[in-house]
Amino acid sequence: MAARSVKNNVLGRGISALISEGAPAVETKEVPQAAQDPENTVAYIDINDIKPNKSQPRKNFDEDSITELAGSIQEHGIIQPLIVRKSSSGYELVAGERRWRAARKAGLDKVPCLIREFTDEENALIAIIENMQREDLDPIEEAEGLNEMIKAYGLTQDEVSRSVGKSRPYIANSLRLLKLPGKIRTQVSAGKISAGHARAILGLRSVSAQEQLADKIVAEGLSVRETEDIVKNGGKKKRPPRRSRKDPDIIAVEEKLKEIYGTRVTITTNGRKGTVELAYYGRDDLNRLIELLESNR
Hints:
Elements: H1 3-13, H2 15-18, E1 43-46, E2 50-51, H3 63-76, E3 82-87, E4 90-95, H4 97-106, E5 110-115, H5 120-133, H6 139-151, H7 157-164, H8 168-176, H9 182-189, H10 195-201, H11 207-220, H12 224-232, H13 248-261, E6 265-270, E7 273-278, H14 283-295
Parallel strand pairs: 2-4, 3-5
Antiparallel strand pairs: 1-5, 3-4, 6-7
Helix pairs in contact: 1-5, 3-4, 5-6, 6-8, 7-8, 10-12
């Protein structure tokens, strides 16, 4: 199936229609036949016949969380069926790998599943969208998944935005994280530094300066604003000048705009007038901001 056809199918039907999990969980001895409306019938499938999704964007699964879920499954069973598709060796997961892992840990022989007919391209897209909508990905996994939707399947940032329920600036800011060196991406994935820290670090040109600042953030527990100050001063930490106390409402607006545009925002007021200043840290960053501002016109 061509990328454009896949895109229209997935985006047109909507993710909830494609991986709906609302069917009643009634165990059957055999996999339901087509005449029995298999898309709305839960089949209990041997857990060893199900393999992980090769296109799964999520790379890290918290073992403590899996163990906790396994305990719940032992007590209450699996509330939501897994979504699978047929493969040459049995079945492949489309959605629900965390439940599948927990079920194995809980010692289940069979798990409730909804069987869907998806192409390889649809399977990959749905795996990305499903994880994004459930916020199961760390910032780097999320950025890689978004990039895969754009590069491999020809989606625009606007189409990705609609698919995953995130704003276009959010998509653009997430994709910027892929410009980080591998060491810093690992630190972001591990939760040692935040995505906000990482976007600020991108303002430094050299990889060595970026990595040094990332290590400094981890060692000293620097805030995102402190990190932005260091980047603004060329990588050196300076004592901030004394400033007059700013209206908390203005500070709140600055923080909101910073989340939207992915950069430091300063609002200066003078009576009923004032200025809104967006900081950029290089030509690419300036072009990104210009594109975001033009898209919001």
